Here is the input.
Amino acid sequence: MTALALVVMEAGGAWPGQIGDSTDLVAFSSGGEDLLQRTEQKLSALHRKKQNVRVAILACNSTGGATTQRRAQLARLLLGAVTSTACGRLILSASGRASTQLRRDLLALAGQLTDGLRGTTATISVQFTEPTHGGPPGIAKAHPLRMTGTHA
Here is the structure.
């Protein structure tokens, strides 16, 4: 099986930086339910091709009740995908200019997801990216916070 990275972007989300050679993108849409459905379809297609998601990045942008609920559903779906691989990683990402509320929301979501790490080798990271000066376009500097699974 081939392992790859999968990027899921909320509308207006910042590209999370350099990821690697094997990256698939589930493009953003204006409707959150559509993004969840498209992500489910993409994960099913990858599974049929016998490809595993080793790194899943959820690029986040906004806050609010419905957005927060959809983001939690997406994050759980992506966490399920990465926990099935050795040393899988889920990264919750936002721009370095993200609001304080979005930063709090992402940290709280990471904390809620840690139960899903039990008995796995997966990790959850929260990162806020800022464009680097003088580097290639699209490359971002990340400031991660990482949570690891506890073995049961």
The mean pLDDT is 78.
